[in-house]
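>> received
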Amino acid sequence: MNFYAAQDQARKSSRILLLLFILLNIGLVVLINLLFAWYLWVSDDPLALPDRVFLDYLSWQRIFVVASSISLLLLFAAWLKWLDVKKGGGAVAEMFGGQQVQPLTTDTAERRLINVVEEMALAAGVPVPPVYVMNNEMGINAFAAGLGLTDAAICVTRGTLDSLSRDQLQGVIAHEFSHILNGDMRINMRLLVMLHGMVFFAELGRVFASSRTSWWADSTRSKSSGRGYLVLLGLGLMVVGWCGVMVGNMLKAAISRQREFLADASAVQFTRNPEGIGGALKVIGGSHYQGHLNHPECQEAGHLFFSAVMPGWLWSTHPPLDVRIRKVDPHWDGKYLEPQPSLYVAEADADKAIKANRPNAEAINVLIGTLAGAELVDYTGQELSLGNPPPSDSDLYNLARDPYDARIVLLGLLMDGDSRVRTHQLTLIGAEDAALADRLSDCLGRFEKLSRSEYLQLIELTLPALKSQSANQYKSFKRLLLRVVRADQQIDLFEWVLYQLVSRYCDGHFGATRKRQNRYDHIDVLAEHYAVVISMLSYHGDVSDELALKAFNRGAGVAGLYTLKPVSRSECTRERFAASVLELAAATPFVRQRVLKGLVQVARHDGQIVPVERELITAIAAVMESPLIGLDEV
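>> returned
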């Protein structure tokens, strides 16, 4: 699955969608202009103005005033919705009644959900998103929300937790991750915002048509006729508004149905198990509730969900269940599956006992092979394979999931090997929080036993926990983090990696958003910056100049820059490297894809990608806000 191509298609769909919605809004403006002209015409006294005809009320000045007012109201209504959406996927989940699942939850079904989400995220090389559950919804459904990788959240219903097996749940989560990686979430959020303006006009018409507006009618030529005309005006606005909503829903459905097919196919590719998502769809078909939801906001946002929240084809945002099932299981016998809650609850208990609050190494290994593809198996492989031992210290993994203790994990990873620098770092931490410094001192021995391949896993596991802090707590911790990084008066590459991952994936959650500008659409104009970055990566690990040149040339060839020359070791500073990464991040998605693919080839020049190289590439991808999977496809 080429996720960059999918993202490009999503952007094209978004532009087409915007054009169609502009045309739809123009149609609404025209119809509402006609409605207001009619209302003014019938409201005037025919005896006072006997020669007035309908067209007299359609002067250009009046049309401009009405059109401007309507456009402003549409934009205002959409803006109000955007204020909710821009807060991130977690805010959208809460809008629909979702409650955040704490990473260390003791609920067995929620624990299984957290494990599945963590496995998928770690294997895909993306941060673990916050997880929410709609506890009052028994329909089998789920959705991913947010504007990008940095603010994504996954939400499932209680019915999903109670009705699906682990494989089926994994299929559903894989489907939602594909929406995150395909760039579908942004277009889904835009759909939600655009449709809200039309719903606003329909509701405005309902208000006009109600008896509460009789005060306005009193000022017209007669109380009874004025009120009657106003009611008709309100009914007209309702009809026009809901017609706009229906047409908008049809546009939304046409785009959404194609994206759902793509997400289903991606889920099969992710898990190598068509029975996972296929089984989930069959259980939905056999469930009394199916995917139906009761929350009043869900119908407007039906395109976000895994399965249809309401029946019907014309406005349905999802293909029919049987069509989706046959796409992933061509030999399906046509029989749906009965949900078996008691079996799956027992399975969740077993899942909790086996996993002991840590990701499943075997599951991650299987997912790595499928998510990354042959080109990237060695890259994303976190040295977890079938039969390998679990993480060296499961207690550290538990600490990483706690909002307070996650700070211990990140600070522990930053502790310097020089005892004098380490003492200074602990002093800085103690000045901010003495209890934190004491607990960190007690844990230092555990960090020394970690394998380097576990560093990145632990960093990624801390990110949802950090987002659970208050804004002031996060700002204070980030300042402390920077002081600890600078304790030795220099910033090495691992410190840069850790700080970038925390900043890129958490800042947006607390309101510090960055506006992306895709200024470069050709890699040629970025050749100098690309040379700096791949030179730094080729020198990483103290390789010989000969091997470094071989690695550099491999990366240059992938980008088509065959005459590119490496930057010398002395000129390849961390500051210059960081500045070049920021410039590369301003490229279009396909250029960023070529950059990341080039980085992977540089790291694989010796047949393997070591953990330090993986950390560096992951941080660069975070700065670029680009997924690391699918790079084997051009």
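>> The chain has a mean pLDDT of 79.
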